[in-house]
Specification:
alpha/beta, five-stranded mixed β-barrel, 21 strands, binds S-adenosyl-L-homocysteine, binds FE3-S4 cluster, Rossmann fold, globular, about 450 residues, six-stranded parallel sheet, binds iron/sulfur cluster, single chain, pyruvate-formate lyase- activating enzyme
Length: about 450
């Protein structure tokens, strides 16, 4: 039996990490990796369900991939991840050529599931309260950055969000498994660790909380940076903030999703904090970590979001001054609580609101980046930019994409770059022209 595997990944970093997990499992089951679907006997699409748009895009892609089955009937086409869990059997009704639908807690048995799927359409969508895959070894893609999931699932049940329904209950990996993964990644040559979890700072294994985990990871040799995403504002303890300040490998950047600047919207979103509490938290983080960069997630057009609510979000973003922000149009997700509430903001108005926030954020990001001109950014080198092989890029400590003329540096080096100019999306070293670098390397605004 031919065993050539192709995995395509959509969604957040947790899905990227899950694909690496599946790859690791299937490597050991004797599969070889191929880079293109038309060379594969098993095609897996790891999917996202966070917004309607994500699912629409994946339907389109599945339509294309079914063509491989027409030409080569032996091909196994499988869908994994959050959309698989969200739609379950409905996905097979909609795309009858599918052989396998496997949710985020079904990956341990993937080799057997694929064998079953060769015989008949197979569904594995039971969620687990305990599965963490902590004992498995992911096959990580090359680069400087290793994704390490330290927890799975989410218990917050924000009313707009599908994640608790498709990823199940919150559970943390045993601390031994996390540290073994960090050490393993270091031994493989990775320089940066990114701890992943939907509420990553809610991590707990016995007495070991997120703060203690950072402290222990901070001692692993070979790793120069430890990042994490996404912390939840309500789970950000003083201990965690102290750890951010104390661990020299944890850079001064926190992604802290706000979602809305209006208390009434925050309450209906069930975010469990007020704007005042969020602002106070930002103050505590800024006092503990001077010069810290903050980024955020915002949703516009949540049911009932009035012009005043939206204005409050605008004001909040301006007052706090995020280095960057991801802004999304609200998308009702069947199963999540708010999908039962009538939408009050039409598409045109959502577009108006998102455009305004993105424009304003661009201005803020530009000012923040221009303030770095003349200073030295410590850059962890990632490689050449797509546009110009002589210009390389990496992230600064503040997680800003920084472009510099290549003079023999290697991937993984930590180098000082004097910032000579800036765009809303990047810091540019001496001799790099703004025009040569667009937002393509990194779509953050
Ligand atoms: N666990 C993270 C968020 C993960 S999802 C947290 O709580 O911050 C990433 C982002 O997608 C969210 O922060 C939110 O801004 C956005 N999002 C989630 N559900 C959405 C929906 N139904 N419509 C639009 N945006 C959504
Ligand atoms: Fe979704 Fe809220 Fe959980 Fe984040 S914290 S994953 S937004 S339910
Ligand atoms: Fe999407 Fe699932 Fe991540 S819904 S954003 S891939 S947790």
């Amino acid at each position: 039996m031919e065993r050539r595997l192709y995995i395509e990944t959509y969604g957040c970093q947790m899905n990227v990490a899950d694909s690496e997990l599946m790859q690791g499992l299937l490597d050991r089951a004797g599969y070889t990796r191929v880079e293109r679907a038309d060379e594969a006997d098993v095609i897996l699409v790891n999917t996202c369900a966070i917004r309607e748009h994500a699912e629409q895009r994946i339907y389109g892609r599945l339509g294309e991939l079914t063509r491989h089955k027409l030409r080569r009937p032996g091909v196994v086409l499988g869908v994994a991840g959050c959309m698989a869990q969200h739609l379950r059997a409905k996905l097979i009704e909609r795309v009858p050529q599918l052989d396998l639908v496997v949710g985020p807690d079904g990956y341990r048995h993937l080799p057997e599931l694929i064998d079953e799927a060769r015989e008949e359409p197979t569904l594995a969508v039971r969620l687990s309260r305990v599965e963490t895959y902590g004992d498995l070894v992911p096959a990580r893609a090359d680069g400087v950055r290793a994704w390490v999931s330290i927890m799975r699932g989410c218990d917050k049940f924000c009313t707009f969000c599908i994640v608790p329904y498709v990823r199940g209950r919150e559970r943390s990996l045993p601390v031994g498994d996390v540290l073994r993964q960090v050490e393993h990644a270091a031994a493989e040559g990775f320089r940066e660790i990114v701890f992943l979890g939907q509420t990553v700072n809610a991590y707990r294994d016995g007495d070991v909380d997120f703060a203690e985990l950072l402290a222990r990871a901070n001692r692993v040799e070979g790793i120069v940076r430890i990042r994490f995403t996404s912390p939840h504002p309500s789970d950000m303890s003083d201990r965690a903030i102290e750890a951010l300040a104390a661990c020299e490998k944890v850079p001064p950047h926190v992604h802290l999703p706000l979602q809305s600047g209006s208390n009434s919207v925050l309450e209906r979103m069930r975010r469990t904090y007020t704007m005042e509490e969020y602002t106070a938290l930002v103050g505590r983080i800024r006092r503990a970590v001077p010069g810290v960069a903050l980024s955020t997630d915002i949703i516009v057009g949540f049911p009932g979001e009035t012009a005043e609510d939206f204005e409050a979000t605008r004001v909040a973003m301006r007052r706090i001054g995020f280095e960057s922000a991801f802004v999304f149009k609200y998308s009702p997700r069947s199963g999540a609580r708010s999908a039962e509430w009538p939408e009050t903001v039409d598409e045109e108005e959502k577009t108006r609101r998102i455009t305004l926030l993105i424009e304003e954020q661009k201005g803020t990001s530009l000012l923040k980046n221009q303030a770095d001109i003349g200073s030295i950014a410590q850059v962890l080198v990632e490689g050449p930019t797509r546009r110009n092989p002589l210009e390389w890029f990496g992230k600064s400590a503040h997680f800003k994409t920084t472009v510099f003329p290549h003079r023999g540096e290697s991937v993984g080096d930590l180098i000082p770059v004097r910032v000579a100019s800036a765009t809303p999306h990047a810091l540019l070293g001496e001799g790099v022209r703004a025009a040569s670098f667009a937002a393509t390397e990194d779509a953050t605004v």
